[in-house]
Design a protein that fits this description.
The chain is of the alpha/beta class. Helix content is about 30%, strand content about 15%. The protein has helices spanning about 20-30, 50-55, 60-70, 85-90, 110-125, 125-130, 190-200, and strands at about 10, 95-100, 130-135, 145, 160-165, 180-185. Strands 3-2-1-4-5-6 form a 6-stranded parallel beta sheet, with helices on one face. The longest helix has 13 residues, at about 110-125.
Amino acid sequence: MGSAARPLRVLVDMDGVLADFEGAVLREFRARFPAEPRVELAERRGFSVREQYRQLREDLEAKVASVYESPGFFLKLDPVPGALEAMKEMIHMQDTQVFICTSPLRKYEHCIVEKYKWVERHLGPEFVERIILTRDKTVVAADLLFDDKDTIQGAEPNPSWEHILFTCCHNRHVQLPAPRRRLLSWADDWKAILESKRRQ
């Protein structure tokens, strides 16, 4: 017996929310440039890893970018703890539509195909059909967006979704003004967020 209500549509970002982008950048940077200074995860501030490395030393910007722009980088990302289990549970929740909404790099040669392969490997073909690739998430209609980027802007000044900030090393220090909400990890009560949105 299904509800007549419109299904809750949930968008889930990929890098930093489902796949451990930050941990992989640090690990690969350390392996490729062992003599160079690096930004440890506890010191990460701001969404752009490239910008923080540039502030450390200007030439490090290109070096860190070469890490995540290299072939195989996105394919090898580890899942964020609890992410796969949460997604597999969410897709089977009644009156719930879940999509992976991810922004490709501007230098997209490798990342787009690898994102699709990553989803198929870790979540299966059912989720490959639910990938939305866009540089502008504000134009995608949904009720909720789980994303580690603290400020999301685009063509639509008032997106239809509520942005739930997913905690990642670079945004732990960000103080959210009320009524904005944060999910500390997938061990946190993400179901309560969905249910509270459903009741609105």
